[in-house]
Design brief:
globular, alpha+beta, hydrolase, Metalloenz_LuxS/M16, protease, Cytochrome Bc1 Complex, Chain A, domain 1, 6-stranded mixed beta sheet, Peptidase_M16_C, single chain, 8-stranded mixed beta sheet
Amino acid sequence: MSPMDIDPSPSSPNSGIDIPKAAGDFKLVVEDSLEFAPEIQIAKWQSESTGLKVVWASNESPLVQGYASIVSEIFDDSGRPHTLEHLIFLGSEKYPYKGILDTIANRSFAAGTNAWTATTDTTYTVATAGEEGFLSILPVYFDHILYPTITDAGFVTEVYHINGKGEDGGVVFSEMSGRENGSSDLMHLRQQRALFTKENALRSETGGLMEALRRLKVEEIRDFHAQRYVPQNITLIVTGRSLNPTNLLNTLTEKVLPSIVAHGQAKGRKPAGWVRPFVESTTASNPPKLTEDRTEMVEFPEKTEDVGELMLSWIGVPHDDFLNDLALEVIGLYLTDSAVSPLSKEFIEVDEPSCTDVTFYASSENPSIITSYLSSVPVAELETLPGRFRKALASAVDEIDMDRMKTVLERQKLQVLESMETDASDTITNVVVSDGIWGRADGSDLKSSLKVNTLYKVLDGWSAKQWGEVLKKFMVDAPALTIIGKPSAALADKIKADAKAIIEANKAKFGEKGLAELQKKIEEAQAENDKPVPPEIIRQFPVPDVNGIEWIKVESARSGGVASAADKPKNRVQEHIDADGAQLPLFVQYDHINSAFIQIGIVLFPQNVPGFDPAELRALLPVYLDSFFTLPVTRADGTKLDFEEVVKQLDAETLSYSININSPLQEAVTLRLKVSKDKYTTAIAWLSDLLYNSSFSAERLKISATKALQGIPSEKRDGSEVSYAAYRKMISEEVSTNVALNLLNREQFLPAFLERLKAEPEAVVKQFEAFRQGLTDPRAIRVQVKGDILSLPKPSSAWLEQFKPIQPFPKEQLAPVKLSKEVMGPLGRQPAKKVVLFGVSSIESCFAYHVAKGPDSWTHPDQPALTVARAVLNAMESFLWKFIRGAGLAYGASISQDLESGLIYYRVYKSPDSHAAFVAARNLIEQLVSGKLEIDDLTIESAKSSLAYNTASKESTINAAANASFTNMLLGLPPNYGRIALAATKDITAEDILRVIKKWIAPIFAADSSIASIASGLAKMDELAANFEKLGYEVERRTFEDTGDESGSESGSYTGSESGSEDESE
């Protein structure tokens, strides 16, 4: 890659928005523009009277995204920061109604609100389409944050309770029970315990450990709120160019600050006695200590004791040492980021991998903690690999390859610029949240943290010796903490037994009468929480004007040749393509956006090859994808490259490269390269050689398959992944492209593949060549070129010059786009009566998909009504929220569609009892259909408003907008389909909604018209199986240890596919 300074050209536009020096008593602390994207301005103000801090950034997006971050230091594992996060949403002083915040958000062109709790902070979020809705909800949100009700009833349902069966419940408890015994959580908690003393809050599990949550009292949460939720401890971050910062500050001055004053909290920037969390507390005076190498072992539950995890940690740099922090990030990438990086070559790209992945990352704490995580380590190597790993780091000190280091630096600089195009809001927010916790009050650290160009220019001048010295100082000579994560079948059995013992102990403690009283307490709490919001309050918040949304413009064009159409676009981009004059035997769409990069995506739909079984060829897909960029290649000019040289040159000449399935469609295999604009022809040449000129080396295929197999156990510990894999496998035929990527398929295929590769390498290679032949049929290829198309001198003819010569074919032979509904198996075409129940030893919660037939076309006449119906049911604090989450039956529950497959499903996420969550949802739907529950006009109006946000969020960046244009083309939809679909929901009535609920959603809850996949903890399996059998389902019980059918389960097999994504098709 030729050196590219990320300083943009002088012509780069500034946002042109006036930044006020003062507004009310908000005074400007610092303002700047990003060095690498000067069109993005950033400014920070602070209220003189209250200390409230506000940061605004002017990135281009139709969304206004807000983040209110509270520094939430705590010195125990009670989970008060996390439980308080949940209780904030249950009502406030001015709006004492559970759900009113999200109802108003939905009316404000948002899709509800959200929050997260980290070790250092709790951050509340809301994103709206346009300024009007954001300024409308902002005062309501602040009233909830500063003055929540925190009721006893809210604690019962949202935090913790014991139900009438003696089972633990509550939304927070359910969430944490699904996390606490995961390998990563257990190892990170042990790391915190080992590095920090009790006087340092970074030792704490702020989410709450289950045992601590059982003891927690609501009064303790109220006390924590009084200590931490004060204006001087809050930073509000708002991103989005469509929001004027003056309007933001005026709204806060007029509608938020008066309430703070009235509550006696206007005590200046730093009130007397205020101790700034982390910076002035005992945390600051008790930093992490690691004076010598230490090793600790932690067991995690896993029935198959084959692979574990390793985590090595070092104490890093102070918060304001931005140069060394960046240098350590770059070193971590140099060591691990590709197949030719030093650690990958030694431990991963070998016949018997010692792990499947190595990553480096640094925390944002002060000082930072540098961590390297090694995934899927064979148990036999858990205790020996750390020493070999440390030795490899020591060897790297004197062996820094400066050519490769320069490649890593150049790619990183470009990726900083790219992040402003793909994810500006989150990128900026992460920096500002960290500064709010650790940064100096005068804004100097914030300003310094934005000077990324300056830092990279310093690193550009470093020698191999300087890089080696940093590696030596922080990771080779420095003491390391090693955490060994070891799988334990005995622990899995213990957790199962303990879960049953807790229930039995509760039954013995409370007795039948006591349990009934506990259940009554839950029901009374639900009733109190669900008191209706007076309609007149909701009507005070009018729905904004959809015309106020600033959509991102994408101009599209088609290549001449097989992609040409009579109705081709009439715009400057099409004129530019036509002027190039090339007639291509490929279907190419060009999507023009204001970008510094060009990305080419080649979408492939595998075709059958005479003489080969289609399902057998599709089964090769996981190994094909894993090995794609690590095979030898013969370039078009005859130059032969081994795999290491292929990777080196790709790293040097591209910003990113990938190949995967399910993007943009479930049956598609998509190859993508992203390059700077001057590398357009280089990218085309690489795409051609990678697709057609690679050599299927048996050695490389073996390494890829071995790595993939070694990574499977960690996937099997993820309950959400397991339930999704089982669902997709149930519904699809084996000939489906993405069924090969299904976790359940890979687990069976990979061992057999390795045996066959060893016995018949030539036959396997012949199969791969046949698979490639079917995959690269030009009649089934669709290409997207997105970026600054007008800057390309040869947008079309470059394909004729650089891509493998393809014989022209008649336009009529262009193969249609393949959709997943075409490869549905019997249960996908007609779901009925089947439940697959997987026992997962590492989890205690349940994850489930309940599936029925749905519309299979984006233009189906019922789709507008069904879209609104789902929005009504799924909205935060709406029906499913109240009946399921509000009752403590699950952390999440929703009705979703897979339009491409023609299915609709009810998803349950982190539930203590997925059967109870299913029955509650069924009862809800029955009450709606029967008329016992009504859907009022305000609910419908709010749901329609939230759809404006959903539409804008899918086009929230220039890249997302371009992707939407291309996907719509593949589906045969207009380029602006999202906005057309939004307009189609405008006149939907309550009658329309009830009709489609009865027609499409009610069948999800009837055994004759639905199927289900469930992943649960082992202790819950028998009860779940019995309960679903009572509902009329045939239940097949499975665990990953089964080699055949489990005793007592039904015989037979099922087929299916996995899309790899849970994004809904709209």
